Amino acid sequence: MVGGGAVAPSASAGGRQDYPGGLTPFIFMASLVAATGGLIFGYDIGISGGVTSMDPFLSRFFPSVYQKQAEAADGGNQYCKFDSQLLTLFTSSLYVSALVASVFAASVTRTFGRKWSMFAGGVTFLVGCVLNGAALNVTMLILGRVLLGIGVGFANQSVPVYLSEMAPARMRGMLNNGFQLMITLGILFANLINYGTDRIAGGWGWRLSLALAAVPAAIITIGSLFLPDTPNSLLERGRADEAKRMLRRVRGTDDVATEYDDLVAAGEASRAVSHPWRDILRRKHRPQLVMAVAIPLFQQLTGINVIMFYAPVLFKTLGFGGSASLMSAVITGLVNLVSTLVSVFTVDRVGWRALFLEGGVQMLAGQVAVGALIGAKFGFSGVAEIPKAYAAIVVLFICLYVAGFAWSWGPLGWLVPSEVMPLEVRPAGQSITVAVNMLMTFAVAQAFLPMLCRLKFVLFFVFAACVVVMTLFIALFLPETKGVPIEDMTAVWKAHWYWKRFVDDDDGDGPRPTRDIEMGVVGCAGKANN
Ligand code: BGC
Question: Pfam families from the xrefs (predicted)?
Fold first, then answer.
């Protein structure tokens, strides 16, 4: 068989890479705090869809959309009733600023360490919450969203890397997926809060929805002050003694010599590189660069954010009443959370590829069914009344799709890019990932409502086709990295049927971590096939 499976189970099966040390309380707490970075991201994802479906919010800030919606309520074209560029700009402005911020976050993360990047993100985010909760006009709303975006850019740039570096290799899947778990928790909280604030008499509930983002922001801001730096980052910044002490502490054992040596080698390689942005373009980093771009690109082309942002709007389009729409969004939020838990507890056993491939097939089935069901009722005219039972079946298939995403592309979309980079280009690589993710999130958010208006139900088939392409991509090009220590990843690429030609073809300058050289491709590939 071609494809990543040929090199699958990874170098980790070999005894030497299985460094001593397990899940210590110290590392658990540090990971928990860091993962709350996911909460602020998730809360933002979940909050805007609900708020933009609240009448008092719409009539105050987007009166033309409010008007159009009222007309459509009397039987007009359902596909187009929320189509407004200004409204989508409210949702997507956050993603543009997150994109820009993530590029700057790379130098902060590399120079000052991962924790200060999280802190910077938390503070900016807090200011954004205040502006949004107090908004008097669209400008304040959008400015607030831009500040939130800067916070998200910094947090998403530093948190996944932090988690991947802290985790013992054999638990990296679980600990890193904690980030996605927090994202889904944030989305669910946001959905529940919208459901509650929508009922507040006086029409100011949306203010509460927007301002409450300050709660997760305060947790990550204060929490980050207490976070220890990762040993990898300490070594990268030349603080060897501290790094060794920290490694002992996080692993809960003094027996860290082997892992420490590998980190030192990676740290040396990293310090030799003064231009990470240029270095990442070198041929030998091609596989990692492709993953840094392709994984977030595909993650967004699953169409997940159509559901996350617009679930209430989408359900309203399907003929649910206002409150019922928010409730359905709560249901998809719950499915998202619970299915992410499945991933947290299985990923280190079944491996990344198995989850990616199963999730892909499941999402495909869900998308096709939703497209067909909506098409059968609304056709191209977009005018129809749908019976309750029919709408419930649509929700059911949406849930099937969400579950598929939640145990595959959701968590792994953040895990894979954060772990495959060598230390010297890791912050730059993660910035590329965040930037592509945000760009695509922006594009999907901005394009969905106008596309739904024009492509109608066919839009769901477009996303389904993307799912086919990305699933094939994983099957062919993503090697299994389950259990491989983060500073040993090069060996995995060297053993891959396609990528080995790039990595073998080392174009010279700059030391490599000694481990890659010591292990050799043969040793690694040999272990890989057991
Ligand atoms: C994605 C988000 C998405 C969320 C849904 C994350 O991994 O990056 O765009 O909204 O998952 O749970």
Answer: Sugar_tr
Q: Give the model's confidence band at 98: pLDDT under 50 very low, under 70 low, under 90 confident, else very high.
A: very high
Query: Could you tell me if the CB of 490 is within 6 A of ligand 1?
Result: no
Q: Residue 281: phi, psi to the nearest 5? A: -85, -10
Q: For domain 25-502, which CATH number applies: 1.20.1250.20, 3.40.50.620, 2.60.40.10, 1.20.1270.360?
A: 1.20.1250.20
In this structure, which residue's CA is closest to atom 7 in ligand 1? 410
Radius of gyration of the chain measured on its C-alpha atoms: 23
Q: Is 410 in the pocket of ligand 1 (CB under 6 A)?
A: yes
pLDDT of 139 above 70: yes
- For a substitution probing ligand 1, which of 47, 163, 299, 416 has the most ligand atoms within 8 Å of its CB? 299
CB 53 near ligand 1, within 6 Å = no
Cα–Cα dist 93/402, whole Å: 24
* 77-86, 105-114, 136-145, 354-363 — most confident range: 354-363
Distance 392 CA to ligand 1 centre (A): 24
Question: pTM of the full predicted structure?
Answer: 0.86
Average model confidence (pLDDT) across the chain? 85
Per-residue pLDDT tens digits for 476-528:
999 999 999 988 898 999 999 999 999 876 554 444 444 443 343 333 333 33
